[in-house]
Write a structure and sequence with these properties.
single chain, 115 residues, mainly alpha
Length: 115
């Protein structure tokens, strides 16, 4: 039978190692993650025929980004816009952003960038 490995002297046997706190994300990073997660979830059941559901999600995302524009400082706004480039949003839910929705989301992202 192999011998058990020696325990470090400064540590008790039954005491678990200290837990590290999870890394704290900034509010704009959490917001970007939430928006992408919602789009990804929506992409699983996306249909261009379900305009009510599509429009509700689009309006909610726009409202969230508009709120971020009024509540976040300019550096966080720019970082949020960098985390959510249009191509990334479009590729997360193919076909969702077209026509007026595409124009609206690009306009809000441009506003966040400060352009």
């Amino acid at each position: 039978m192999p011998e058990p490995l020696p325990q470090p002297k400064n540590r008790q046997k039954n005491k678990p190692p200290p837990r590290c706190a999870p890394p704290r994300n900034s509010s704009h990073e959490r917001l970007a993650h939430d928006i992408l997660a919602r789009l990804e979830e929506h992409s699983k059941t996306y249909s261009d025929r379900n305009q009510d559901k599509n429009l509700a999600l689009h309006r909610d995302i726009l409202a969230t980004l508009e709120q971020a524009h009024s509540e976040l400082d300019s550096a966080s706004q720019k970082q949020l816009a960098e985390l959510l480039p249009y191509k990334k949003l479009e590729s997360t839910c193919k076909g969702f952003y077209s026509g007026k929705k595409e124009k609206d989301i690009k306009q809000v992202l441009q506003k966040l960038r400060g352009a």
